[in-house]
Each structure stands twice: as C-alpha cells, then as structure tokens.
Amino acid sequence: MTDYSDITDLYMVADCLVTDYSSTVVEYVLLDKPIILFAYDLDKYDRGFYRDYRSTVRVILHIRQKNFCSFCKKMWIMLKNAKILPNYSMII
User: Fold this and answer.
1) What are the helix and strand counts (H, E) for the chain?
2) In angstroms, rounded to a whole number, what is the distance separating the alpha carbons of residues 67 and 61?
3) Which of 29, 30, 49, 63 is exposed most, by the fewest CB atoms within 10 A?
C-alpha cells in the first residue's frame, strides 16, 4: 500500500501487477508485464464481469489465501531469474 497519488507511475516501475477484480488490469496489460489476478473469492463474487472470467484467463491456479505470500515469493524468483519476462495472466 502507498499514498502515492499517480498509479500510472507505479505501473512503470512495477515488475508485476497483483490485483483482484480491479480495472487496473485494463491499463497494466498494455505494458506487456505479468499480471496475477488474486481472485480467492471468485465463486462468491456477484458483481458480474464484462466477459466470462474463467474462459478469458489463460491459466487458472487454485491457491489458498494462506499460501499466497509463498506463491508470490516463488513468482518473484522466477521473474528475477528470467531473461525475458513471460506474457501471461493467472487467476489465483
């Protein structure tokens, strides 16, 4: 969390975006950087989507909320060691 006022500046310096159902994905996807969609409550989410969530996201991983931090650490190591960052999205 930050009090920084312009999120678009943060997009530029971020290696990866971790978000839930936020519209930040729409802007961040233009940067061609990895996005992790942390949708731990997808089955209970009832506000609707423009497109079918499960068929739109390419990779679906089921990770419990308590394991999310360790997953992020593993992702960071993978991204740090990669010479070319992969182009993918995940739902967790």
Assistant:
1) 4, 4
2) 12
3) 30
Instruction: Determine the Cα–Cα distance for residues 23 and 27; give it in Å rounded to an integer.
Output: 8
Contact 16, 35 (CB under 8 A): yes
- DSSP 8-state class, residue 52: -
**Contacts of 86 by beta carbon, 8 Å cutoff, 6+ apart:** 34
| pTM: predicted TM-score of the whole model, two decimal places | 0.62
How many residues can be counted in the chain?
A: 92
Indicate whether 83 pLDDT > 50: yes
Q: Is a pLDDT exceeding 50 seen at residue 60? A: yes
